C-alpha cells in the first residue's frame, strides 16, 4: 500500500506550491510527509480526522512569493533592480529604485506575503534628477498644510541631501501618519524620518481600554491572544498572531488610541 502511494507523493511535491496560501481541511500531515519523501525519507499513509492547518512556508517559497508580490504590484513603477533574500522568514530587500515611493511600496508588498516574519529595507533610492533641499522642503510644507490645515503649523520639515525629517508635536497619531503620507510622493525625496511626537492627553487606563476594545472590534485580529500593557503614553503589545498582517493590524489599533506616543510591538508570529 505504501509502495503504491510513493509515486503519487513525488507528483504531489510538484503541485504543493499551489496550496501554500490556502488552508487545507484534509491530509495536511500527508502533504508534509510527501516533502519528507523529497528529502529521502519515507512517505507513510496518514489517517485520521480532517483538521484545519496552515501549509508551512520555507525561505525559498517566501522568496518567490515576495518577488511575485513586488513584480505585480501596480504601485511600483520599476522593480527590476530590487533583490530579495530570506532567512528564517525575515526578508531583506536590496538593490535600488528610482523613487522613494517604489522603495516604500516594495516594503509594503513584502509585508503582505504570508509567512513573512520581518522585513529589512536596504533599498537605495537613485534619483534620475536631483532637486534642491529648499525646493523639497517648500513643497513638503505646502502638502502638510493642505492635508492638516489645523495642525500643519505645529509640524517642522527638515531636508538635507534629499533626506526629509518631520518634527513637532500633535495630539493624535493619525496626524503624525497623515503628515508623512502628505510628503511621501514628493519627487526628490530619498527617505523619510518621522520624528513627530504625540502628546498624551488621556489616562493610561483609558488608553488600555480603548485599545482592547479596538482589538475586539477588529475582524482581522484574535484579541484573546494579545496582551496590552500601558505605561503613561507608551504601549507594549504581547502575545501571538497568525500572520504579519494581523500583527500590523494590532499595532495600528494601538496607535489609533488617543494620546499614544509610542508602541512597542512584541507580538510573535506563530502560523
Percent of residues in helices: 25-40%
Q: Could you give a short account of the major beta sheet?
A: 4 strands, mixed
Q: What number of structural domains do the residues give?
A: 4
Global mean pLDDT: 80
Which architecture of the largest domain per CATH?
2-Layer Sandwich
Through-space gap between termini = 33 Å
What portion of the residues fall into strands of 2 or more residues?
A: 15-25%
Radius of gyration: 23 Å
Text of the CATH class of the largest domain = Alpha Beta
What is the total tally of β strands?
14
Counted by DSSP, the helix tally is: 8
Quaternary state of the chains: single chain
Low-confidence stretches: 1-54
* SSE string, helices as H and strands as E: HEHEHEEHEEHEEHEEHEEHEE
Using the alpha-carbon principal axes, give the shape. flat
Output the CATH topology of the largest domain: Histidine-containing Protein, Chain: A
Q: What structural class do the secondary elements suggest? A: alpha/beta
What does this structure look like?
- β11 (226-231) and β12 form a beta hairpin.
- The chain has four domains: 2-54, no CATH class; 59-125, 2-Layer Sandwich (Histidine-containing Protein, Chain: A), CATH 3.30.1340; 133-198, 2-Layer Sandwich (Alpha-Beta Plaits); 204-269, Histidine-containing Protein, Chain: A.
- With 271 residues, the chain is of the alpha/beta class.
- The protein has helices at 2-15, 28-38, 59-71, 100-112, 133-147, 173-183, 204-217, 244-255, and strands spanning 23-24, 53-54, 82-87, 90-97, 118-121, 124-125, 155-160, 163-170, 191-194, 197-198, 226-231, 234-241, 262-265, 268-269.
- It is 38% helix and 24% strand.
- It contains eight helices and 14 strands.
- The model is unreliable at 1-54 (pLDDT under 50).
- Strands 3, 4, 5 and 6 form a four-stranded mixed sheet that branches. Strands 7, 8, 9 and 10 form a four-stranded mixed sheet that branches. Strands 11, 12, 13 and 14 form a four-stranded mixed sheet that branches.
Amino acid at each position: 500500500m505504501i509502495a503504491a502511494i510513493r509515486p503519487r507523493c513525488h507528483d504531489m511535491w510538484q503541485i504543493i506550491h499551489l496550496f501554500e496560501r490556502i488552508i487545507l481541511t484534509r491530509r495536511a500531515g500527508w502533504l508534509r510527509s510527501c516533502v519528507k519523501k523529497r528529502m529521502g525519507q519515507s512517505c507513510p499513509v496518514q489517517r485520521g480526522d480532517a483538521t484545519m492547518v496552515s501549509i508551512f512556508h520555507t525561505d525559498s517559497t517566501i522568496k518567490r512569493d515576495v518577488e511575485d508580490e513586488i513584480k505585480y504590484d501596480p504601485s511600483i513603477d520599476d522593480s527590476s533592480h530590487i533583490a530579495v533574500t530570506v532567512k528564517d522568514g525575515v526578508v531583506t530587500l536590496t538593490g535600488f529604485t528610482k523613487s522613494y515611493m517604489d522603495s516604500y511600496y516594495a516594503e509594503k508588498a513584502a509585508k503582505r506575503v504570508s509567512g513573512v516574519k520581518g522585513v529589512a529595507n536596504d533599498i537605495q533610492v537613485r534619483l534620475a534628477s536631483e532637486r534642491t533641499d529648499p525646493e523639497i522642503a517648500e513643497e513638503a510644507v505646502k502638502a502638510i498644510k493642505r492635508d492638516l490645515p489645523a495642525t500643519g503649523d505645529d509640524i517642522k520639515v527638515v531636508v538635507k541631501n534629499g533626506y526629509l525629517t518631520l518634527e513637532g508635536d500633535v495630539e493624535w497619531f493619525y496626524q503624525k501618519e497623515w503628515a508623512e503620507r502628505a510628503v511621501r510622493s514628493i519627487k526628490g525625496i530619498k527617505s523619510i524620518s518621522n520624528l513627530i511626537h504625540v502628546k498624551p492627553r488621556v489616562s493610561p487606563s483609558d488608553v488600555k481600554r480603548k485599545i482592547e476594545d479596538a482589538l475586539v472590534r477588529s475582524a482581522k485580529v484574535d484579541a484573546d491572544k494579545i496582551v496590552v500593557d500601558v505605561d503613561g503614553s507608551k504601549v507594549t503589545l504581547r502575545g501571538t498572531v497568525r500572520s504579519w498582517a494581523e500583527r500590523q493590524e494590532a499595532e495600528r489599533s494601538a496607535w489609533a488610541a488617543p494620546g499614544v506616543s509610542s508602541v512597542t510591538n512584541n507580538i510573535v508570529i506563530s502560523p
